[in-house]
Amino acid sequence: MQAFTLLTGLVAPLDRVNVDTDQIIPKQFLKTIKRTGLREGLFYDWRKQKDGSQDPMFFLNQPRFQGATILLTRDNFGCGSSREHAPWALLDQGFRCVIASSFADIFYNNCFQNGILPIVLKADEVLATMKDVLATPGYQLTVNLEKQTVTTPNDTSYRFEIEPFRKDCLYRGLDSIGLTLQHEASIVAYETQRKVETPWLFTDLRP
Length: 207
Hints:
The chain is α/β, with parallel strands linked by helices. It contains 8 helices and 7 strands; from the N terminus they run βααβαβαβαβββααα.
């Protein structure tokens, strides 16, 4: 998993509340277990008009937001089913950080497991930033995980809270597998010892 330390990036606005995971990545894109290629399904239904053409008003279809690495949205983002494809699709699109006034719990947890930093700011801070993003082409924010701050172009700084364990894992790029592999030497030593003490457990009995 890619570590997250300091990010200065273009901000894309999704000014909607209660965005559920079925809108983030619709069910027809859940057939794969690969984490790549999912950007085509990200917000699929919202990106298109009734005639199937691209909706020019939706932010992903607007040139000014291409290459955005920070998604700014509203209350209860990621509600609905627990599909891990939702953060996969966001990451495949290039988003490393999602800022909202609240998140659904399972989506929030899944973000950390996939190298995305979900940040909770106060509702008025989100709304003020949303207004600036919409009014200012090329609007960027700087996210500092170590200091737990989000800084605007005019040097306004918002502080966010994060659990120390989650912060440490994301800062070092460690998901659950990465954490386990830190003890690889001990695991190998244990397995080696078990093969000596109980060799019958490791005998291939197939004909």
